[in-house]
Write a structure and sequence with these properties.
single chain; about 375 residues; alpha/beta; eleven-stranded mixed sheet; two-stranded parallel ribbon; about 25% helix; globular
Length: about 375
């Protein structure tokens, strides 16, 4: 039951945010607001050997209508941000940490329950170590593809740390914005789409839709790989594809992997896999969980190797989203998201995923999964 509550929590936050929209995007508090330290935010460093570039794409699936609108001619539109190993050249700009259109959500996510408020000036000039439109690094002929989906009520902009860190380790990561399930989908023409509530009697109602979004994104990346004018031309190893995501996005990764034989691996990051009846995986599958719970029966539907990695309550469900770093930066003693240092949790998550993918893509050793002496002290690992 508690996993269902974790899914619904972002929806509660979005409802609070929508009720407080005004000309001032900052949330209002009824008691004294507490500010944290006054110091420019420093994003965590990347764990891999590569610098990271990024490009954003707007893809329209002409074969699918948009089920969340009443207009029969509407098509499913995705915004997808790709992170990739990059080479640095002069004049490149970096991705800003501060996004004024998403800031109210980041503040409300914890401030509503603590009467604390992030100090905006700490983030206004801070930059992620990610470079816009950078050339791809020529160190490898091609890089494995990772399709990443955010949790329900989140967005790609709240999962930059994991996506960029995986890119620094030698993966091309396509991070999808799922409209009507993302906190905000902001198109270049000015349209803004907000998350819609899931039906309470069918919380997995959109998992098939999201799985098809992941499959469509694979199709689009494959087209980029075949396009001689694209920076990704012949640089994506389409024989090595992983679907993954946080929460609802992780559940969608299971669904897409059950449908598309191009997908070779799947990783679910703390997501309850609703509507899994009759779905089976014949590829290696891993669950990374904040809490040790009763979801491991899903491995009965996996005929290849399976891993369950639990952080044993050292972190919370939201600890896989970037804004936990902001709250711990402003308030170092803030334990709303767990007792484990957030940067350690992010680094461990990337390393666990990297070793899992390299084991099955390249035959490498995976000591954090297979050697009890090298498993993180704050995690437990079960192999199925």
């Amino acid at each position: 039951m508690h996993r269902d509550i974790r899914l619904l929590f972002p929806l509660l936050i979005l409802l609070i945010c929508s009720c407080e929209q005004s000309n001032d995007p900052a949330p209002k508090y009824t008691e004294t607001t507490i500010y944290g330290k006054n110091q420019l935010f420093e994003p965590p460093g990347l764990g891999g050997e590569f610098d990271v570039g990024t490009q954003k794409f707007h893809w329209v699936d002409q074969s699918r209508g948009e089920p969340h609108t009443t207009y029969e001619h509407d098509k499913r539109e995705l915004l997808v941000r790709i992170f990739y190993p990059a080479s640095m050249t002069a004049g490149l700009t970096q991705m800003p940490v501060y996004d004024f259109r998403r800031w109210p959500f980041w503040e409300t996510a914890a401030g509503r329950f603590s009467h604390r408020k992030l100090r905006r000036s700490n983030y206004l000039t801070s930059m992620w170590p990610v470079y816009n439109e950078a050339p791809i690094n020529p160190a490898q002929e091609a890089y494995p593809l990772v399709i990443f989906s955010h949790g329900y009520g989140f967005s790609p902009e709240e999962h930059i740390v994991i996506a960029s860190d995986l890119a620094s380790r030698g993966f091309i990561v396509a991070s999808i914005n799922h409209p009507y399930g993302a906190s905000r989908t902001i198109y270049d023409d000015g349209r803004i789409i907000y998350s819609q509530d899931l039906p309470q009697d069918n919380l997995g109602a959109d998992l098939e839709l999201w799985a098809n979004d992941q499959i469509f994104s694979i199709d689009q990346v494959e087209a980029l790989n075949d396009d001689s004018s694209s920076v990704f031309f012949s640089r994506v190893d389409m024989s090595k594809i992983t679907t993954t995501g946080h929460s609802y996005g992780g559940a969608a990764a299971f669904h897409s992997a059950a449908k598309d034989t191009r997908i070779g691996l799947a990783v679910d990051i703390d997501g309850t896999i609703f509507n899994s009846e009759g779905k089976h995986l014949s590829i290696p599958f891993m669950m990374i969980q904040s809490h040790d719970d009763d979801s491991r029966e899903i491995f009965e539907q996996v005929s290849k190797d399976g891993y369950e990695v639990s952080f044993n309550h050292a972190i919370e469900h939201h600890s896989f989203a970037d804004y936990v770093l902001f709250w711990r930066w402003d308030f170092p003693d803030f334990e709303t998201f767990g007792t484990l240092d957030d940067e350690v949790a992010f680094s461990a998550t990337s390393e666990i995923m990297t070793q899992f993918m390299r084991k099955y893509h390249h035959g490498d050793q995976a000591p954090v999964l297979d050697d009890p002496a090298q498993t993180y002290t704050f995690t437990s690992v079960r192999k199925f």
